[in-house]
Amino acid sequence: MSFQFGHKFNMNKFKGNYVIKNLFTITGCSLLLSFQALAQLTNHVEIKPGFYFEVVNSSGAPSDHFESGQTIRYILSTTNHEALLGRNLSPSQSFVFNLHDAAGHSIPKTNLGFENSELIGSNKPVLYSRFAITSYSWPGRIMFRPDEYFVMTNNGIYTLEAQLRIWMLTTNRQNGVVIISPLVRVQVEKR
Questions:
Q1: Domain 41-190 has what CATH class?
Q2: pLDDT tens string 2-29
């Protein structure tokens, strides 16, 4: 293993390489734990001023902890007095999502998970149902069940990160743009 600090430094030739390698390992583990601690759980995020994306359980109550076989739903809400108009994208383009185990390793997606995480990229977004949020909240919609979208082989606590993609009218109400929400982070438990 070598590091570049203006000149090459080969750790294997250094007398105290055992201590330094362990120091790098301990420091790396500490940094990983620090980054995971910074990634706090949040079940709601502000998409734009006064407009929120919130993850809820099947009864509509906000939650940051779900069972792997539980259907996760979401709501859109507003604190503004004017209506927010937009359209959902097709179910295959609506969400960007990843699942990580307690060690931070990415969990692979099932075929259904891949089918429902289509990149928009050069593809045009497929506009789906229209919505108008005129009051506090919009009825919850089904997001997905984690065990149907991820290959969860081991029992334990996982962290789900998800972003909502929606099409919103611009302020001139003539054009629209796809907006991607900040990440929501919730726990998913497999027993």
A1: mainly beta
A2: 333 333 334 344 344 443 344 344 334 3
